[in-house]
Design brief:
single chain; alpha/beta
Length: about 160
């Protein structure tokens, strides 16, 4: 059994990678700093390269935990557009790019598998002064629902977890 954990060098991602390893998985972590593979998940070319490296190392993964993310605060009316874009690019687009790449590998390999995206309770509640973050995590929640609908027939289970503070 093998797994990819994005954002696996610290925090929830690191703890998840450790738990998977303790349960017998070969785990490859993708992270900007300190992961097994250096990967900016908001960059489609970096995701493709990380997947190719993973496939050559452990084969088609059985699991993906899309955990990489960034926090942000700021009132919507004053939010810097570059910061808004960074949060959406990492938290939402990065989750989609990673999930899409791994799902395609699972489909091509005929293996199926499990994908878990780490969302947040902030995807369902309106946290004042955290607009970009809330929007990005709400997007992850819907991304997971659509992905489950599309990829379920291929034997890929897709879920999200929404930790809180």
């Amino acid at each position: 059994m093998s797994a990819i954990v994005t954002g696996g060098a610290s925090g929830i991602g690191s703890a998840t990678a450790g738990r998977l390893r303790n349960n017998g998985h070969d785990v490859v972590t993708w992270d900007l700093r300190g992961g097994d593979i250096i990967c900016d998940i908001s960059d489609p070319d970096a995701v493709s390269a990380a997947l190719e490296q993973t496939l050559s190392t452990v084969g088609v993964p059985d699991r993906l935990v899309a955990c990489a993310g960034v926090g942000a605060s700021g009132m919507l009316i004053a939010q810097d557009p570059a910061e808004w874009k960074r949060v959406i690019d990492v938290n939402l687009t990065g989750a989609w790019l990673t999930m899409r790449a791994v799902a395609q590998a699972m489909i091509d390999g005929g293996t199926g598998g499990s994908i878990v995206a780490v969302s947040s309770i902030s995807g369902t509640v309106a946290d004042r002064d955290m607009g970009a973050y809330c929007v990005s995590k709400a997007g992850v929640d819907m991304l997971v629902r659509v992905a489950a609908s599309e990829w379920g027939p291929h034997g890929i289970r897709v879920n999200a977890v929404g930790p809180g503070v």
